[in-house]
Amino acid sequence: MSSSSSSVVYEGWMVRYGRRKIGRSFIHTRYFVLETRLLSYYKRKPQHKMAKLPIKSLHIDGNCRVEDRGLKMHHGHMLYVLCVYNKREKHQRITMAAFNIQEALIWKEKIEMVIDEVLHGKP
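Structure tokens predicted for PH domain-containing protein:
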């Protein structure tokens, strides 16, 4: 299994959603890239493969799940939140959000498709 076999399945701007220790939520616009075995996000859209290292990556395998966290309010904006995590290592997770439900559902569907392909042994 080589990393060169990885290809981009889906990519686009989404929002990184999280909570600070004092309970306030934060959002950061980030560029997400879903590959055949990897979900990563960057501050800016990567111009080419080796342009920049991602801020964070999550290896996608058969233990990954996409959890629908529903609608959250952030400073008057409705966000539709998804959490992608590894059920064996719950600290390995990426929480992402979209301003519209359609975009969030497309991401959920694409990530689940990648997990499904890993589970059923497709390269």
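The chain has one helix and seven strands.
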